[in-house]
């Protein structure tokens, strides 16, 4: 069934690819056909004296810890060290409208027909078409070729809302937590689910930062990946934290979050015992965090991402401070992050996506 | 691949017959349906006797059965597509699988026939997860699980009481959409089952669904008939209404609704443009129904499907019924349905 499909715009001057790393970026070789037109922002974690080798022909800027400290001064305290959460520094220094972030153990996957998947192109498609958070479409993304809204879908809701986030998935090593990894060390995700869908308003989800794209102008200030890693009691909850924050804010501001395609091939399973140590506190804290986010209410006069985020940080302090002192520090870091964001992005347009 | 064993004594397959000759339909479904009991309800407007091939275990219900049980005042409730609800009413089994008679078995991505019974029952027998979205979809499917960040306290899920399947070829689009895109056919087999999150409404299609009759039977009800309701899905909205009611009940009682697999293949039938010329009513009505259901609140005293439906009927009469005449009748139909339901139950 042929349909006239308009080609997806490259957006090469409007999108930055942010990659956190502690090792050489040979994985980029596989992505070259898809990534080469774009500017990369590499955030080097760990030892700043190490030299990160980037394959020839890529246009990039690289920031190590010394750069982060230099650029942010005392505010650099909000950027995690020895954790991939440091990637959010890349979001802050970018000057582009869109961000795509990917882990350095993620490779090009193949679709069921054997064709290489251009993950970036799919993310762009997801971001450039509306989301439908107010009513569930049983045929998933109605804007995809070959699909539409089903019978019963109210016409007044068919315009959708702006898409702020596109959350991709992973074949091969699935994004399981440590306990699940320990119980199912051999499980691989081999199921290619050919769908993109909007996560409904009022519903939270676990956002994975391995294969993620977002509209920086619509939601960037809320994409803070928290305090993780060195000196912190927790790890592997950076993207989760950001995901709960952005969903509450997107729901409040009428923005959409999509999940599903594209798939990347996740090649490396991290050590489950190391992971368990990092996640341990999170597994318990999560039981308090979820009800917090589920009942989080933002006042009507919060009409920008920054004001929503600052309000959220107040609520974190007020309600989660008693769970652990970590959340007091995190709430402060959230404020520091916004201050740093506003310093680095002084003329950022005040937008709520409406 | 399910680890769920299906007891055929727990399943009824309900088919509303709009064609008198069901031979080819039944033959197509024989590999999947032959070991189950079928309840075939004949469209009361159909004059001819049904032709059903040998080798099936079935009961047929016709207009006279409906008139006898429902009485002349309520028989109209079971006309047209709503005749299938009569099948739900008379069933004595736990699970109902319901499909339209213009559907054939679909083929999955491996070319195998989709066994809708196994998939629907598997969906109903494994928990649903409405409180938090799992990005790898149904965590109970083989080869999947809950992802990192999914709270452990929510991993036991809730009982799934409704399984909504999908359609290849002629998807369940409305008449305006299908008229605008006459060539649009659904060829995308999405290999996923997922839970529709709590407080999220969806358009439930009556073409291919299954439910736990013991848990939510009273909520799968015939109530909303368009003035010019016809014999094509484009000319109905009764299932959409029913879905809004069921979802409200499920959200209130913390029960689950799944959507996705299994697929059926829906055959070409009718003309979207002809249906469109007939009536826009359903499309217009949705604009009122959705805000109503989005703001609907049920009381803590409503702890069964029946009591929830009673409250919804009262709310409809008070709210929507005032502005739309067809909706005033809906509330009455809902109450009448519950009465008949109670009566039939009491005879068991």
UniProtKB/TrEMBL annotation, chain A:
It comes from the Eukaryota. Its main location: Golgi. Its EC number is 5.4.99.30. Glycans are attached at residue 151. It is an enzyme of class 5 (isomerase). InterPro entries: Nucleotide-diphossugar_trans, RGP, RGP_fam. It catalyses: UDP-beta-L-arabinofuranose = UDP-beta-L-arabinopyranose. GO terms for cellular component: cytosol; Golgi apparatus. The record marks 151, 158 as: Required for activity. GO terms for biological process: cell wall organization; plant-type cell wall organization or biogenesis; UDP-L-arabinose metabolic process. It is found in: Golgi apparatus. Keywords: Cell wall biogenesis/degradation, Glycoprotein, Golgi apparatus, Isomerase. One of its GO terms (molecular function) is UDP-arabinopyranose mutase activity. Pfam families: RGP. Belongs to the RGP family. Probable UDP-L-arabinose mutase involved in the biosynthesis of cell wall non-cellulosic polysaccharides. This is UDP-arabinopyranose mutase. It comes from Cynara cardunculus var. scolymus (Globe artichoke).
């Amino acid at each position: 069934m042929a349909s006239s499909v308009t080609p997806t715009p490259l957006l090469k001057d409007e999108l930055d690819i942010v990659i956190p790393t502690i090792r050489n970026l040979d994985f980029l070789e596989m992505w070259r056909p898809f990534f080469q037109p774009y500017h990369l922002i590499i955030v080097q974690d760990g030892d700043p004296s190490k030299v990160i080798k980037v394959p020839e022909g890529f246009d990039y800027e690289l920031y190590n810890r010394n750069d982060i400290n230099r650029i942010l001064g005392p505010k650099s305290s909000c950027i995690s060290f020895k954790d991939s959460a440091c990637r959010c520094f890349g979001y802050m220094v970018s000057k582009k409208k869109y961000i795509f972030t990917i882990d350095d153990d993620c490779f090009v996957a193949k679709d069921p027909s054997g064709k290489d998947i251009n993950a970036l192109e799919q993310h762009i498609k997801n971001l450039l078409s509306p989301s439908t958070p107010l009513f569930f479409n049983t045929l998933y993304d109605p804007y995809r070729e070959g699909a539409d809204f089903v019978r019963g879908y109210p016409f007044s809701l068919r315009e959708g809302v702006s898409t702020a986030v596109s959350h991709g998935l992973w074949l091969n090593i699935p994004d399981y937590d440590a306990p699940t990894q320990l119980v199912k060390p051999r499980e691989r995700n081999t199921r290619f689910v050919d769908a993109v869908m909007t996560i409904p308003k009022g519903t939270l989800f676990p956002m994975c930062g391995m294969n993620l794209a977002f509209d920086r102008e619509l939601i960037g200030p809320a994409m803070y990946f928290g305090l993780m890693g060195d000196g912190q009691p927790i790890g592997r909850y950076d993207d989760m934290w950001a995901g709960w924050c952005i969903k509450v804010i997107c729901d409040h501001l009428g923005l959409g979050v999509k999940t599903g395609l594209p798939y990347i091939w996740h090649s490396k399973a991290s050590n489950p015992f190391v992971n368990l140590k990092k996640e341990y506190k999170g597994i318990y804290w999560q039981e308090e965090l979820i009800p917090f986010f589920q009942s989080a209410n933002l006042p009507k006069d919060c009409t920008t991402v920054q004001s929503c985020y600052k309000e959220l940080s107040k609520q974190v302090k007020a309600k989660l401070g008693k769970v652990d002192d970590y959340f007091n520090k995190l709430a402060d870091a959230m404020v520091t992050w916004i201050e740093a964001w506003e310093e680095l992005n002084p003329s950022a347009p005040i937008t709520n996506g409406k | 691949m399910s680890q769920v064993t299906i007891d055929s004594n727990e399943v009824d397959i309900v088919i509303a017959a709009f064609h008198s000759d069901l031979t080819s339909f039944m033959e197509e479904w024989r590999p999947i349906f032959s070991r189950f009991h079928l309840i075939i309800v004949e469209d009361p407007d159909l004059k001819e006797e049904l032709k059903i091939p040998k080798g099936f275990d079935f009961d047929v219900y016709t207009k006279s059965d409906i008139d006898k049980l429902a009485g002349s005042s309520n028989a109209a409730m079971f006309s047209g597509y709503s005749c299938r609800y009569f099948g739900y009413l008379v069933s004595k089994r736990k699970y109902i699988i319901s499909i339209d008679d213009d559907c054939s078995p679909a083929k999955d991505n491996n070319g195998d026939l989709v066994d809708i019974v196994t998939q629907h029952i598997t969906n109903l027998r494994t928990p649903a997860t409405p409180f938090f979205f799992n990005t790898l979809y149904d965590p109970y499917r083989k080869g999947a699980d809950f992802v990192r960040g999914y709270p452990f306290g929510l991993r036991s899920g809730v009982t799934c009481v409704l399984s909504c399947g999908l359609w290849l070829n002629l998807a369940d689009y409305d008449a305006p959409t299908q008229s605008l895109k006459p060539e649009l056919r659904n060829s995308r087999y999405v290999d996923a089952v997922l839970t529709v999150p709590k407080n999220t409404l969806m358009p439930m299609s009556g073409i291919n669904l299954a439910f736990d009759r013991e848990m939510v039977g009273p909520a799968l009800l015939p109530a909303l008939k368009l003035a010019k309701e016809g014999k094509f899905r484009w000319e109905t909205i009764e299932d959409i209404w029913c879905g809004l009611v069921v979802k409200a009940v499920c959200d209130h009682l913390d029960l689950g609704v799944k959507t996705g697999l299994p697929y059926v293949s829906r055959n070409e039938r009718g003309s979207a443009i002809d249906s469109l010329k007939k009536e826009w009513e359903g499309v217009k009505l949705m604009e009122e129904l959705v805000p109503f259901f989005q703001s609907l609140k049920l009381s803590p005293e409503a702890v069964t499907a029946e009591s929830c439906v009673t409250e919804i009927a009262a709310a409809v009469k008070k709210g929507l019924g005032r502005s739309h005449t067809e909706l005033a009748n809906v509330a009455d139909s809902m109450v009448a349905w519950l009465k008949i339901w109670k009566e039939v139950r009491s005879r068991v």
